[in-house]
Design goal:
16% helix, 12 strands, 10-stranded mixed β-sheet
């Protein structure tokens, strides 16, 4: 992995929502490759590069807790967002959770006290220019990660749960002893096929001693 990097992320809570749960949020057991990609992109992303998640090392025991929280019951329509972009103002593009007509209280099953090491690399896309290179973007990412810089705040699945991060540059991750052995985590969201209508694709996640090998997005192990 010539242009790979390792990023340690952790947080007090996390929720990587299972799409099959329609009403109340229930998290996967661990961070999904899609969520890991989102954290990396929060630190550095350009149209010239595409992040690829290679491995996820789970560091802490998998623990769930149930919480109840207030959510807004509607979404801002795409048409209103488009109108606001054309008008050049975000006035009116807001839903208030303290509005009794919008507020809904829902239960959620989330993860508590999580930490992972994300191993990833990136590929150069067809949108790259003459001055784009793997070394250039790797240097930018590493520099920003060391300084704790990001374009938008990275999160653990949902915005309410912020993600802390640091570049993992030396040594090997040390998972908790409770993670020793092999565990089938079932079908897990890999990522979305953005070239095919944002179609979700899944893979059978298996954790061995806390380590999850993520298959290439275009492989027989990844199903639509």
């Amino acid at each position: 992995m010539a242009y790979g990097t390792r990023l340690m992320v952790w947080g007090e809570r996390a929720c990587f929502t299972r799409p099959e749960m329609k009403v109340e949020r229930v998290s996967y057991d661990v961070i999904t490759p899609s969520a890991a990609r989102g954290i990396l992109e929060a630190i550095h992303w350009k149209p010239a590069i595409r992040w690829v998640i290679d491995r996820i090392q789970v560091l802490k025991p998998i623990r769930f807790e149930s919480i109840r929280r207030n959510e807004v019951g509607s979404k801002i329509s795409a048409r209103n967002v488009s109108s606001a972009m054309n008008a050049g103002t975000t006035a009116g593009l807001v839903n208030y959770v303290d509005d009794p007509k919008e507020r809904q209280q829902r239960a959620a099953t989330v993860l508590r006290d999580v930490a992972y090491v994300i191993e990833a690399h990136f590929e150069i896309t067809e949108k790259a220019g003459a001055d784009d290179s793997e070394g250039k973007h790797l240097d930018i990412f590493n520099r920003r990660a060391r300084k704790g810089q990001y374009f938008h705040a990275p999160c653990m699945g949902v915005r309410e749960f912020p993600a802390n991060f640091r570049l993992f540059e030396e040594g090997e991750p040390e998972p908790d002893v409770s993670l020793v052995g092999e565990r089938d985590l079932g079908w897990m969201l890999h990522d979305f096929d953005f070239k095919n209508g944002c179609e979700p694709r899944f893979f059978r996640a298996c954790m061995r001693d806390g380590l999850i090998e993520v298959p290439p997005f275009v492989s027989e192990e990844v199903k639509a």
